[in-house]
Amino acid sequence: MTPTATVHRVAPKGRGSHRSIASAVRAARDGDEIRIAPGEYVEQLLLDRAVSLLPEDGPEHAVRVLAASPGRPVLEVTASGVRIEGIALTGQDPGQPAVLVGAGSLELDACAISGGRVEAGGDASLALTDCRVRGAELAAVHINTTGSARLTRVQVEDVEGTGVVIGSRAAVEATELTVRRVTGSGVRVRGGARAVLRDCRISGPGRSGLLVEDEAAVAALDCRVEETAAEGVRVLGSSPRPEDRESTDGGVLLVRCEVLRTGTDGVAVSGTGDVLLLNCRLRDGSGPGVSADGDSRAELVDCQVDRAHGSGLVAQGTARLTAEGTSVTGSRANGLLAGDRSEVRMATSDMTECSFSAVHACEDSRVTLTSCRIGSTAEHGIRATDRAGLTVEGGRVTDCGLSGVRIDSAAEARMRGLSVVRGRAGITTESTGTVILEECDVADAERAGISCGTGTTPVLRDCRITGTGTAGLVIGERAAPSVEGCTVRDAAGSGLVVGPQAEPRVRSVTVTRTGKNSLFVGEKARGTFEDCVFAGAGSDGAAFPALHVAAGGAPVLRGCLVRDTEEDVALEKGARPVFDDCLSRDVRNPSLPTGADQSLAAAGSPGGDPRSTARETEAPPEDTIEDLLAELDGLAGLDRVKQDVSSLVKLMRMVRRREEMGLAPPPLSRHLVFTGNPGTGKTTIARLYGRILAAVGLLERGHLVEADRSALVGEYVGHTGPKTTRLFQQARGGVLFIDEAYSLTQYAGSNDFGQEAIATLLKLMEDHRDDVVVIVAGYLKEMEVFVRSNPGLASRFNRTLLFEDYGSAELVSIVEHQAAQHQYELGPATRESLTARFDTMPRERGFGNGRTARQLFQAMTERQAYRVAELPDASESDVMTLRPEDIPQTL
């Protein structure tokens, strides 16, 4: 109190006292004090001068001021310098302000406000210290001012709405704020407001713990958000990026915060929101731990996400989520779920004890994992599906219920230095996209160490596989991987298994100490094996040969060594391998040829004992035209293409017959243009076409080499020619298939070497016109432009096969085929629903066709898994049957 200030007393009785507070205010001047005797006062106070209201004597809140009428505040402030201490203020309408600061400034110290909210507007300033606000509706504290506000040790509770709302361009500091038992959000910050929250606790809100909207910015330091019925922290709008982690100049910042027992997400970020969490803990949420959607950004540093009932981390939309030094433990779903076109980067982080796959990347998301540790998951450690992109640098995956890593659909993956230990399987790649594994270690898998699925073309370099169960490296049917510098040791089954009709390129691979064969080549499989070592086959005591080739198998082995085994080679009837400069050493029963002609024919019968040493010298049969045409006819749809290929077969047979008669062949270009949308079977037909030409005798091997612009075009002067030549030489005797060939001519400028690749290719086609068939593929209009762009192309590619989109019935048959392969069943109602679903899909440019059917089947199995998981006693029929409700309406 200033020396000239006057003290005005208020009491119900007594000489010299005012009988009402309003009377004392009217008598006071700026700077005066009003001392109020204990009691209850029914008033409507307008404080239009700088006065202080204080209790005269008695305990805190012995002075109670009640609003005189509903809909009006008990206290309204329009002057600066107003201070109230130790008084209880009660409104009559919980949905209206009990305390209203329209202008000036108000300090409330140790006050209790109930029956309405505290509201500041205009350019007013507000300070609450050691206050309690309860029993309001809509909001307990509403700061919608362009001025500043300070909340210190304030308790907000029992609110039918939001605890604290901060709007306009207010600048608010809240220290040790407690918000509990509110039905809405705990704290809501919107507009252009700025807020700093220190040592705050938000408990049990009905919605978000902290909701940030528009361009608002919040810094939350040492805060706790617990038991929310919605998100712990939710960010909407366009919060700017936090450049200074300890200021309010950025987006949303949480430091050493706890978000506990939330009703849904622990922290949810959407719109263009931006959140940074430092050393925070999110636990026991009923939804995801942290979710980022829209065009938002979320960053976690040294955080813990424990026991989320949903996925630990979720990224959707075009959100960007990064995590460093963060652990995700005990999620009821995935540890990390990335979808849509989101981007996720995780480094030196842990994900353990997840109920689903620890990392699940789907749709068009991009996920990068650096030195992360993943363990004890019920499903896959890492799974990438749809068109997702996965990059893994280092790290360790252990004890997974399914595969340590699974790549399927059209996902792309590049993994270097990853270690996968234990679990049912090591790394499984079923994707048609680009998959590259470098310097990866797989150990102690119950089944295969690394599996390359049907028709896939992954690249494996310098990988190590040890101590696996059924097999070390498995190459699936028709797969054509590139394997270089890898080792397989101590497999309980065979070391390297090549499936039927597969055609791998294997170089400098070492296979040692296997329980069965070092190398098993399946029926009609081909492939090349250069500079490989096969040692210690049958190490469990059984007399398995190091190399076993099944009926029709025709691998080429160059410079290979077989050693330390009972028997080096066993062939089934019809096997026709070629051995070039191969050796046996320390083999008890050697039969590997060492002469100039190193082909080896098989004896016995198909399906005979793979350890048999019987041999015969007759030449084995090739694929028959009848078998190949039957295989062609068995493909779904493609009626026009089948007719065109059948006509070509007749023409090729006539060419071959004339050559055998010594007659000149007719002028004929075997090179083809394939046009059509993705997923229409162009690669499958190209592979089959090569085998047909080999069966007719117009190609030596008929194998397929796939390429695109990146495989042909170099990065600097003098690089493109050799690169294209090497690829062409690799295809000699077979088919060179160039997808999206028009990309060779779409780039202009002095630094593009696409035209050089075309010129090199045309010369090679002329020099080796009988050795290689080239097929170029892509969209119809672009391929027409491509062929017309160069006279050499137009003269060599004069026959086009149009691959039309699949009809609904054909797409359903593809789904049925996928279901049969994976031991699922479709009921009649499911088939009808599938037909209706495909009927609604627009057949626009880029329609996925067969790929879409396979993706739909995969999505059906996932939805069925979620549905069946809810059944208390699922039968075998429940587990195997796909129902109409399993069909997703979006992909």
Structural key phrases:
single chain, alpha/beta, 17% helix, 891 residues
Describe the 3D structure:
By secondary structure, this protein is an alpha/beta fold. Helix content is 17%, strand content 36%. The strands form 4 sheets. It has a 46-stranded parallel beta sheet that branches. The protein has a 25-stranded parallel beta sheet, with helices on one face. Strand 74, helix 7 (754-767) and strand 75 (773-778) form a beta-alpha-beta unit. The chain is elongated. 50% of the residues are buried.
What order do the helices and strands come in, and which of them pair?
Blueprint: E1 7-10, H1 21-27, E2 33-36, E3 39-43, E4 45-47, E5 52-55, E6 63-67, E7 75-77, E8 82-85, E9 87-90, E10 97-101, E11 105-109, E12 112-114, E13 117-122, E14 125-129, E15 132-134, E16 137-145, E17 148-152, E18 155-166, E19 171-175, E20 178-182, E21 187-189, E22 194-198, E23 201-203, E24 210-212, E25 217-221, E26 224-226, E27 233-235, E28 252-255, E29 258-260, E30 267-269, E31 274-278, E32 281-283, E33 290-292, E34 297-301, E35 304-306, E36 313-315, E37 320-324, E38 327-329, E39 336-338, E40 343-347, E41 350-352, E42 359-361, E43 366-370, E44 373-377, E45 382-384, E46 389-393, E47 396-400, E48 403-407, E49 412-416, E50 419-421, E51 425-429, E52 435-438, E53 441-443, E54 450-452, E55 459-461, E56 464-466, E57 471-475, E58 482-484, E59 487-489, E60 494-498, E61 505-507, E62 510-514, E63 519-521, E64 528-530, E65 533-537, E66 547-549, E67 556-558, E68 561-567, E69 569-571, E70 578-580, E71 583-589, H2 625-633, H3 639-660, E72 672-676, H4 682-696, E73 704-707, H5 709-712, H6 720-730, E74 735-739, ...
Parallel strand pairs: 1-2, 2-5, 3-6, 4-7, 5-8, 6-9, 7-10, 8-11, 9-12, 10-13, 11-14, 12-15, 13-16, 14-17, 15-18, 16-18, 17-19, 18-20, 18-21, 19-22, 20-23, 21-24, 22-25, 23-26, 24-27, 25-28, 26-29, 27-30, 28-31, 29-32, 30-33, 31-34, 32-35, 33-36, 34-37, 35-38, 36-39, 37-40, 38-41, 39-42, ...
Helix pairs in contact: 2-4, 3-4, 6-7, 10-11, 10-12
